[in-house]
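Q: Given only this backbone (973 positions), what sequence would you predict?
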């Protein structure tokens, strides 16, 4: 055996030369099998069936497998012990993936699950021909694709003699055709009299590889000639037979001899009995019973809900060979698809064909005319094709895949409650992959990481910060208000959180550059030093890989974890005592915690703007609870809580999609695109025709589609984290006013409303006044020279940090490519000179002074400096990550797609989300603000100011009513 116990190089060879290369092939083939199921459903009607063996004439739970007393010593391994007797499930089936009459030419199959102990079982799968038609997984899937949907003799003949040779070549097709004809030419009168052979070999402990077979026990009576016009004659024959006596099969094994005569990798070669005799080792007995009794029918239904997989076993009995290794991924995928846990969204043929023609045209056009300078309809269509390219090329899975596959227990049933409620930690959003996107799942990538330790300090991050980021004078974004700045921090705290080592345990050190004359203390009251020091991120160590894989300590899903917490303990602690449905509030505010920072799901980097939003949405949760109780009096407290969480999380996602994003990317094209994401396109024949021709899936809005992860399992990415480093939005100074008469209450700095001081200030100011103050004030523009001074020297977790330096260092050390590579990787042309990046003369001069060439520019700096499209609050390069990930966060989440429905949310809940928005949240909890909200813009645009008399601390018209784009002083750029 190999040292790992997971593969044995004496017997196995991997497709592509390595387990990892083969894993990628197997996953692709698994996706192909799901498409086969879709085509078979169209041909056979009904729901999605098993990819193979769709129809089962028999399913019983009360079978027994007993090993013989004279079991050969060499085969006494694991559960295989003389006289050992185990319960078993048995499913006998027709092999086709289409449910068809029993008289159709077909193979037959047997699936047996032997239950050894709690959590230990063995699945044995076999088919009624001694050899596979396919030698490996590629051939197996090619055959399945060729035959998919084929019904009737002509369709099957066309698939077998035309489509199959085109897929695998004439020679391979001829061999497969011979095997299939030989396997299906016999008439089958009874499944009890058939012999079933394993597809490929399995390990049998130290005895090495074996193939197994189930053959009728001696003395099994033959079957009478059936009425082949009866589509269910095989079931009726078994019912008659089991009504009179037991049905038994002998389990036999054939032992490996050598690679030529008994190959492990080539499943199309028969292990002949003359070379490897079949040795009986156990007997499988199906006891006499009434198959059509209610209890037996219920058992058969339960078995139909199961998924069988040869990898549901133990390591001693793991499957061997390429086909078997591929079956783990393939059977898991097709089983999950059948059970509604995994989905296939097929692209219409017209979309595929037209896309291949038109997509490259837009690619060429964009070299001359950027998408945002095209006419509206063309720019929208251009975005459709750009997103297609990004989905295909810029979703990189970083999770460590299982290669080679490992044996595992048969999966436990999914907890029923998690079908209709979000888990506390993000597990079970994808029911087929419970850990996908959960707390602890790794950040993915949109670009191949570029880990270069030799450039971590080049140029010095402190120099970059002081020359290119430091706020010398405040540049406002006049089309937005400060609520927009608070909102994105509120959202980022739900999405991403890199865990850090405790202060002092493991640090990053950044030497101060020569000439840096400030005194720097790394801890409050500590000595001045010539180095900045801050806690390192905790990475996921993977042998043979650079240290650039990090786990998210928040869930990746849009689940409101910043309000509710990322684990059950926190979530329950935040609820009212006694397990109430509501969140705890004190006089309408969040309950106080240590150091004055309130108790909520995520309260790091706390300030008054976060407090306002957390308070609003905690109140919103409680309002949803009240409405649910009134509408559904019998609903339990637990159900009320989880339903309210679904509603509030979806409402937050909707607000971000159709209100915040169009506010910061203030163009008609983006407004239409984002509203299309949620609600479908405008009722314009031109828009709908364009989508029908090129991307039909966008005709309904994402919440009315099926989950789709596209090219990689769902996760947020390190590149996504980078483009959301939007700290320039935070002002350093704030004027707090009361909303009735506009009177100024006081002027405060950011540090006066940060941490525990922020909560004290909002209680003193009042929620409505705080919201009004933020609603009329502008955030900073996302541009160089505009990083908040307050964030360049502030205390967090017992250390003093310069967040601008931290942003630069984190991005470099996580392997996010530098700006020019980042830009090129997102399908924009590389810049060749600093002048191509920015038109600002001050920024241009400093870029040339700090960087030796354009390829050295930091990603964050380049994204800030880039000349954005008109109306955009950030760069076109950052926008490309956004258009990819914005729709992905909706499209991957079943609670925002297939399970966004009244049966899960309740009719009231769906109505609450569909009719709700940021204005409705504000007015529900602060109705006195109604006259002050923008009339024709979102709540993230500047609010109406209350005029005050000159000399009384008031202002005249500061902020206006909307502001539809950037101003000449930088605006929202």
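A: Predicted residues:
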């Amino acid at each position: 055996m190999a040292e790992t116990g997971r593969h044995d190089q004496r017997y196995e060879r991997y497709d592509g030369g390595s387990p990892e290369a083969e894993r990628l092939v197997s996953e692709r083939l698994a996706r192909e099998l799901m498409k086969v199921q879709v085509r078979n459903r169209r041909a056979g009607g009904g729901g999605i069936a098993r990819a193979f063996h769709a129809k089962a004439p028999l399913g019983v739970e009360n079978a027994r497998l007993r090993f013989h007393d004279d079991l050969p010593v060499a085969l006494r391994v694991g559960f295989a012990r003389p006289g050992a007797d185990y319960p078993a499930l048995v499913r006998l089936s027709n092999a086709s993936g289409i449910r068809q009459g029993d008289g159709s030419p077909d193979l037959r199959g047997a699936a047996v699950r032997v239950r050894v102990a709690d959590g230990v079982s063995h699945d044995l799968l076999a088919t009624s021909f001694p050899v596979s038609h396919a030698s490996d997984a590629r051939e197996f899937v090619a055959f399945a694709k060729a035959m998919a949907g084929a019904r009737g003799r002509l369709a099957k003949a066309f698939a077998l003699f035309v489509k199959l040779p085109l897929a695998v070549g004439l020679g391979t097709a001829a061999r497969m055709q011979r095997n299939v004809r030989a396997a299906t030419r016999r008439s089958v009168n009874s499944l009890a009299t058939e012999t079933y052979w394993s597809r490929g070999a399995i390990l049998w402990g130290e005895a090495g590889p074996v193939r197994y077979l189930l053959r009728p026990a001696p003395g099994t009576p033959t079957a009478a000639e059936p009425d082949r016009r009866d589509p269910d004659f095989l079931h009726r024959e078994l019912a008659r037979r089991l009504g009179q006596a037991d049905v038994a099969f002998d389990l036999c094994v054939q032992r490996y001899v050598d690679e030529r005569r008994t190959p492990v990798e080539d499943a199309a070669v028969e292990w002949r009995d003359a070379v490897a005799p079949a040795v009986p080792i156990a007997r499988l007995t199906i006891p006499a019973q009434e198959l059509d009794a209610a209890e037996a029918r219920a058992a058969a239904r339960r078995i139909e809900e199961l998924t069988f997989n040869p990898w549901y076993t133990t390591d001693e009995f793991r499957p061997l060979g390429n086909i078997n290794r591929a079956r783990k991924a393939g059977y898991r995928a097709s089983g999950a698809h059948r059970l509604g846990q995994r989905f296939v969204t097929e692209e219409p043929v017209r979309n595929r064909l037209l896309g291949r023609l038109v997509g490259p045209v837009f690619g060429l056009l964009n070299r001359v005319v950027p998408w945002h300078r095209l006419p509206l309809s063309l720019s929208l269509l251009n975005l459709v094709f750009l997103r297609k390219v990004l989905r295909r090329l810029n979703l990189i899975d970083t999770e460590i895949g299982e290669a080679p596959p490992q044996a595992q227990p048969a999966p436990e049933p999914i907890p029923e409650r998690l079908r209709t409620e979000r888990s506390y930690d993000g597990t079970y959003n994808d029911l087929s992959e419970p850990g996908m996107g959960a707390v602890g799942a790794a950040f993915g990538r949109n670009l191949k990481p570029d880990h270069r330790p030799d450039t971590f300090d080049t140029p010095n991050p402190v120099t970059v910060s002081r020359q290119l980021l430091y706020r010398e004078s405040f540049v406002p974004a006049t089309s937005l208000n400060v609520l927009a700045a608070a909102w994105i921090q509120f959202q980022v705290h739900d999405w991403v959180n890199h865990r850090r080592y405790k202060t002092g345990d493991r640090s990053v050190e950044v030497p101060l550059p020569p000439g840096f004359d400030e005194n720097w203390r790394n801890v409050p009251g500590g000595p001045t030093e010539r180095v900045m020091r801050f806690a390192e991120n905790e990475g996921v160590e993977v042998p043979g890989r650079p240290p650039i894989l990090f786990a998210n300590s928040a869930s990746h899903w849009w689940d409101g974890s910043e309000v509710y917490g990322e684990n059950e303990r926190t979530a329950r602690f935040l609820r009212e005592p006694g397990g109430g449905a509501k969140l705890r509030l004190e006089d309408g505010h969040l309950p106080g915690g240590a150091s004055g920072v309130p108790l909520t799901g995520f309260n790091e980097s706390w300030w008054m703007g976060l407090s306002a939003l957390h308070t609003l949405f905690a109140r919103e949760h409680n309002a949803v609870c009240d409405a649910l109780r009134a509408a559904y009096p019998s609903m339990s407290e637990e159900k009320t809580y989880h339903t309210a969480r679904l509603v509030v999380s979806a409402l937050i996602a909707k607000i971000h999609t159709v209100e915040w994003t169009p506010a910061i990317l203030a163009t008609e094209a983006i407004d239409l695109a984002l509203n299309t994401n949620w609600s479908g396109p405008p009722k314009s024949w031109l828009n709908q025709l364009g989508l029908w021709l090129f991307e039909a899936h966008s005709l309904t809005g994402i919440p009315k589609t099926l989950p789709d992860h596209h090219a990689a399992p769902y996760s947020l990415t390190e590149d996504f984290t980078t483009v959301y480093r939007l700290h320039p939005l935070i002002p350093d100074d704030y004027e707090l006013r009361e909303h009735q008469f506009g009177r100024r209450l006081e002027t405060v700095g950011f540090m006066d409303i940060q941490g525990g001081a922020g909560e004290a200030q909002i209680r003193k100011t009042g929620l409505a006044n705080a919201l009004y103050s933020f609603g009329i004030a502008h955030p900073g523009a996302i541009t160089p020279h505009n990083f908040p001074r307050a964030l360049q020297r502030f205390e967090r977790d017992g250390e003093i940090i310069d967040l601008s330096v931290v942003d630069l260092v984190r991005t470099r050390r996580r392997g996010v490519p530098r700006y020019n590579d980042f830009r090129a990787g997102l399908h924009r042309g590389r810049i060749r000179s600093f002048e191509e990046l920015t038109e600002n003369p001050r920024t241009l001069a400093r870029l040339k002074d700090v960087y030796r060439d354009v390829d050295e520019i930091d990603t964050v700096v380049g994204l800030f400096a880039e000349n954005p499209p008109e109306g955009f609050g950030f760069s076109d390069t950052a926008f490309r990550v956004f258009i990819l990930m914005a729709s992905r966060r909706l499209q991957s989440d079943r609670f925002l797609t297939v399970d966004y429905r009244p049966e899960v949310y309740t009719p009231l809940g769906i109505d609450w989300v569909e009719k709700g928005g940021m204005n409705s949240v504000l007015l529900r909890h602060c109705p006195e603000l109604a006259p002050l909200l923008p009339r024709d813009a979102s709540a993230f645009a500047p609010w109406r100011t209350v005029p005050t008399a000159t000399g009384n601390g008031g202002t005249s018209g500061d902020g206006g009513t909307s502001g539809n784009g950037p101003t000449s002083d930088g605006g929202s750029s």
